[in-house]
Design brief:
The chain is 27% helix and 15% strand. It has seven helices and eight strands. The protein is globular, with a radius of gyration of 19 Å. It comes from Daphnia pulex (Water flea).
Length: 239
């Protein structure tokens, strides 16, 4: 908890909160700042509110608000998982002219079109470094670049695909050194940003979902009961 205490015990020992929330437990105690009240009388099922608590609202709003994408901009998104697709939706709402998805799994490409991705690049299909491919495709580099994998190797190339003076946004944090991954050190500079959004954005985004302005159901591939949570992680790791 923010005050340095814990509300959980097991066999007399203190159990600390995971990420301050411990949302994988059936019951939890959270600080007030970690909770957002959502009026979802029209929601069909409580689980539909789950994505709004983490990556989903952070990244669709970050691509709109933090990056401030202008209409007609060119965007590159590294990684077409849930985070990357949420970013793509934000870019589509911002009326970006080209949304280029970068991923090594071609099976994701057709599905990603539903979220606004207009072009696809598989690094395995090119002999040139992927950043060079993107610079050539866009006549000098993209306007905005989003790293949505958390892979240090991708981060080393991701910034080189952007036109000088434009905007970068990281999904993860790492030192810009191969083999030295420090998840507590942000890459922050004049042209880069590590950002999310506050819990105050959640109710508004839920309303957007209820009014069919953003997708949520499409992100759910399996409905797994709590007792099979370990299997859910296996499904996630298998893609």
């Amino acid at each position: 908890m923010p005050d340095g205490t814990t509300r959980f015990k097991c066999k007399g020992k203190d159990i600390f909160h995971f990420m301050g929330c411990s949302t994988f437990s059936k019951y939890t105690v959270c600080a007030e700042i970690s909770v957002a009240k959502v009026y979802c009388k029209r929601c069909c099922s409580p689980w539909k509110s789950v994505p709004f608590g983490m990556w989903y609202f952070n990244w669709i709003r970050s691509s709109l608000n933090t990056a401030g994408i202008e209409p007609g901009s060119t965007v590159a998104i590294w990684g077409l998982g849930a985070v990357g697709l949420a970013v793509a939706m934000g870019c589509q709402q911002a009326v970006a002219s080209r949304i280029i998805g970068v991923d090594i799994n071609p099976a994701k490409f057709e599905f990603a079109k539903k979220f606004g991705v207009t072009e696809f690049v598989n690094p395995k299909d090119h002999e040139k470094p992927i950043q060079t491919v993107l610079v050539d495709m866009t006549d000098g580099g993209v306007d905005y670049s989003f790293e949505c994998i958390g892979n240090v190797a991708c981060m080393l190339h991701w910034s080189l695909a952007i036109e000088v003076g434009e905007f970068l946004l990281l999904y993860w944090r790492s030192r810009f050194q191969p083999g030295n991954f420090d998840a507590t050190f942000p890459i922050i500079g004049d042209w880069s940003c590590l950002e999310g959004n506050s819990f105050r954005s959640v109710p508004r985004l839920v309303e957007d979902y209820l009014n069919k302005k953003v997708k949520v159901d499409e992100f759910v591939s399996h409905d797994v009961p709590y007792e099979e949570i370990n299997n859910a992680f296996h499904l996630m790791h298998s893609g």
